[in-house]
Amino acid sequence: MIQSRHQLSLNGAAVSFAAGETVLAVAARAGTAIPTLCHDSRLEPAGCCRSCLVEIEGRPRMAPACATPAADGMVVATASERVARHRRTLLSMYLADQPAGPERGGHSCELHAMADEFGAAPDWPKMAPLRAGRADPNPYILFEPDKCILCARCTRYCDEVEGVSAIALAKRGPATTISTADGRGLLDTSCELCGGCIDVCPTGAMTEKMPRTAAAPPERELEPVRTTCNYCGVGCQMDLNVDRAANRVVKVTSPPPGTTTNDGNLCVKGRFAYDFIGHPDRLTTPLVRAQDGSLREASWDEALQRAADGLRGVAERHGRDALGFVSSSRCTGEENYLVQKLARAVFDTNNVHQCSAT
Questions:
Q1: What is the total count of domains within the chain?
Q2: Which residues are within 8 A (CB) of 199 and not within 5 positions of it... i.e. 6 or more apart?
Q3: Does residue 63 form part of some domain?
Q4: Which domain holds residue 295?
Q5: Of 124, 205, 258, 329, which sits most exposed with the smallest number of CB within 10 A?
Q6: What are phi and psi of 42, to 5 degrees?
């Protein structure tokens, strides 16, 4: 609880706040939800989506809660008839600019969920989108400009969090869209393919390419399974979205900002390098080398015995420091721990490495 002499009135209740807090932050801490499409706790407030407008006594115009500093004595109304009418109208206009059909947005996107919650009109005439885009050969990120609402979350994330500024708002007026410098493909820019733009997009205008080739049927829900990324030593948390019926990972998403050590951020490997899990080329049976040099299938007992004999033979002929153990970041943390125990406790060598070692 904030211990402060600063107070404002929020829907008739006195709420304390700290200097520098916004109306949106004060309301969230007080348990009052204010809808927003352009806000992200990792980004500087932009106030561009206008969905978080609230009434402030003494001000003729409604103000964006995300970008309005709280002030002593301020009287704020977040659920008045004027505010509710504004939200319905605004969201109805957003829907009119969206592609028709649930398959192009559906209730999983923030915009459609918000439109349902606040009673936006779903039957306003659709507008032909003027935002244009072109196919990008990068293997991971798909941009569909007709679904974009220009909240600029993606461009701000790319600039403020990743610090690469690979994408920005381009053109003017109704033709404004998300683009790269000179309209180049992401592979020809400073883009790190982290997928942060996908994570922050509220409409699915930025989305993953890979799940489209292996996605579950629309009626089948994906189960998020929290795990730790093993590609480096940071220990980022991520969610594997699993299609239980098909027993496969369909995509990787990041936990909400502020809930894990990585604050909802992932790198290109953490977000996209998961297809090895069910890859058809992945070995499922041990292989050993035959006398003629070819590989043949073997039992686990035979394969482990062959490996043990080979390692012991090297140690006996050349000494323990002639051995080296290299593990994989695609193994679990527990498996990597066992590899270093095998090296140090069984074969008495410290020559062990794995790329996520810290």
A1: 4
A2: 157, 253, 254, 264, 266
A3: yes
A4: 283-318
A5: 258
A6: -85, -10
230 and 353 together in one domain? no
**Number of neighbouring beta carbons within 10 Å of residue 318:** 10
**In tens digits, what is the pLDDT along the chain, a chain of 358 residues?**
555 678 999 999 999 999 999 999 999 999 999 999 999 999 999 999 999 999 999 999 999 999 999 999 999 999 999 999 999 999 999 999 887 654 443 336 899 999 999 999 988 988 887 777 778 999 999 999 999 999 999 999 999 999 999 999 999 888 899 999 999 999 999 999 999 999 999 999 999 998 765 555 665 788 999 999 888 878 899 999 999 888 889 999 999 999 999 999 999 999 999 988 888 898 999 999 999 999 999 999 999 999 999 999 999 999 999 999 999 888 878 888 999 999 999 999 999 998 776 4
Domain end call among 38, 53, 79: 79
Is the separation of the CB atoms in 323 and 315 below 8 Å?
A: yes
Whether residue 14 contacts residue 1, with contact meaning beta carbons closer than 8 Å, is answered with no
Task: Return the CATH number at 185.
Answer: 3.30.70.20
Same domain, residue pair 150 and 262: yes
Phi, psi of 243, rounded to the nearest 5 degrees: -90, 100
What the block records as the tokens of 34 is 């204010």
Give yes or no: residues 186 and 254 share one domain: yes
Q: Do 153 and 267 share a domain, yes or no?
A: yes
| DSSP annotation string for 304-358 | HHHHHHHHHHHHHHH-GGG--EE--TTS-HHHHHHHHHIIIIIS----EE-TT--
